[in-house]
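=== RUN LOG ===
request id: a7f3
mode: sequence -> structure
chains: 1
length: 294
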Amino acid sequence: MKAKKDISQNHILWSTLAWIIGLILIFVIWTILSTTVYKQSGKLPSVNKCFQAFGELLSQVYNWSAIGIALGQAIACFLGAFLLSAGFAILSRYFKWIKYIMMPFVTIARAFPTAVLIVLIIVFLITVKPLVPITVAFFVIFPMMYEGINNAIDNVDGKRIEMATVFNVSKWEQFKNIYLPSSLPYIFSSFIAGFGLTFKIAIASQLVQNYITAQDIGYPSIGVLIGKAVTDGNYASVIAWGMVAILLSLIMELLIKEIGRICMPSKYKDQHLISAFFKKIGSKSKKENINDRI
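=== RESULT ===
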């Protein structure tokens, strides 16, 4: 037991050290490029200038409004995509015809070029501009989450389902006691990847929307502020907004991981819950057989 604990601690130590070394290498490469290749053009400002721009950016109330709106759009889109993808994935498990109906929609949404999608949605939703980033991000994230949840459900041990069927366990009990605890680890993994992508797509949509409409989109927007910084040649501000996006994505990722740690059963707990469930239905079946004999 002690040996396993020491191995775990060593793994955490070395992984943290490797992460710090990787971060230092990024700053070293950044400094070399900014002082040599891009010194004359100034397109890659120094690390210090970018962090100064980052501090100035966070000191302005208007920028916090833009951050809040972008974050709200990403969360709304992410939750909507999750609820719909989870609903359709569960229905597809029990009704195969729904799975086949969903296939062309998911395939087209996954393969459709994001740039073309942004342009089309901007044209269709020209009068409701705040919905553009949400809609674009939804069409990008939905097929990924649907397939992730579908695969998680499909990977559930078929022997457990067969055993539950033998014991005449209802579909709801199967879902609650077998599918859900077995699928949650995979679902939360897709959560972590999904939210970061949603946030990036939402900001990119705001930026393209600003350039295409050639006018203010009507609300505080990170994309518009990035576009203005590019036009003004303020590349330190552009990178500072990138740092904001990275920081917010990391915070949300940690939050999702913490929620997953609380809600998601560990592998051992997962096996324990399912084993306890089968013991329960096994003892129930025995009682029913005894009553039938009596």
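=== NOTES ===
DSSP finds eleven helices and no strands in the chain.
Residues 285-294 have pLDDT under 50 and may be disordered.
=== END ===
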